[in-house]
């Protein structure tokens, strides 16, 4: 990492990512680290220009108030301490609200730390190309290519760095959106001439997931099975020693640190088996979601690909709530296709950051075709966000919601009710599982 860095030490604040994003918006790289990082560990990081100690309401672990290692205060780094939205600089205290925070951080980053504005996507890409080439050498890399934003940007970055040493594998785990696997093959194999291996593992995944209701267990099963598929495909190729992943910074943050509580494990963070046969290549792990898109634009990817609708690694498996059944899985797939179609017609596909349907594992009484029905509800979710760490609810016109509702009730079997999720993040997460 050649860019200057400001390190944020996590003492239980909900605003770590807000501070990190604000610093990055100033043109300086920032990263969140555990509260108990040592001076030696800090010194191994490249180009650290200053430390922010960020306190908050969750700074109690096992009944004890936590603090940073005391030696950090005399390690020679400029320090800015936040505590309950108060900032202390040179023994002065400031209120850190949405108006003053950027000014406080700018003063600290540039005047106290003397950091340079060298965090941008061009520099990031140049750094990563060098890092990837040094890591991989002349070996081959295997990439799980879902066709989503993260894996597409990883693919473009790896192609820039190592060209035909990259082998992309698209696994259809039976949890894809309608027509998605076909689109991936068309774009990456037929149009972009990538080394693409297509694997239809639908039955394999759905069998593994039978009667599994816990969302964390589902994510881990899907993550582990992905690795097994890749291992099998790698054995068919010579020289595969590396596995590339589209892990991004929110995945790491939400999967938990020594200080931060886990929100949910991500299949590419918490679901990897201990006996992994590959060395990982994760060039996007420093980036928030909007930065991933900016990276894709800098790499020259088409707008439609860079701003494609986000889709979780476990796919519809975490939108078919509870234990997956094939009838509910098809209800999710078909209702999602209707939602995407109607949003595109209304121009909402370019306005709303993420939108999808979920089908829970319970039924309700209704009336269909003039007879009593006992079928599933479909829940619509549509949110806007910048970095996926917080999200607001999109206000959809009533006429559009009614049209979507009418189509779902008429076209999707085993459904008799449609609901709209009004919950922001927090307290809800973007996905239901």
TrEMBL record:
Domain of life of the native organism: Bacteria
- As recorded in UniProt, its EC number(s) are 6.3.5.2
**Which annotated residues bind ATP?**
146-152
Q: Which GO terms describe its cellular component?
A: cytosol
GO molecular function term, any single one:
ATP binding
Going by the UniProt record, its keywords in alphabetical order are: ATP-binding, Glutamine amidotransferase, GMP biosynthesis, Ligase, Nucleotide-binding, Purine biosynthesis
Sequence ranges assigned to domain GMPS ATP-PPase in this UniProt record? 119-308
Q: Give the record's pathway.
A: Purine metabolism; GMP biosynthesis; GMP from XMP (L-Gln route): step 1/1
Q: Which Gene3D superfamilies match?
A: 3.30.300.10, 3.40.50.880, HUPs (3.40.50.620)
Matching entries from Pfam families are given as: GATase (PF00117), GMP_synt_C (PF00958), NAD_synthase (PF02540)
This molecule's function is given as:
Catalyzes the synthesis of GMP from XMP.
NCBIfam families for this protein: guaA_Cterm, PRK00074.1
User: What protein name is recorded for this chain?
Assistant: GMP synthase (glutamine-hydrolyzing)
Query: To which species is this protein native?
Result: Coprobacillus cateniformis
* Taxonomic placement: Bacteria, Bacillati, Bacillota, Erysipelotrichia, Erysipelotrichales
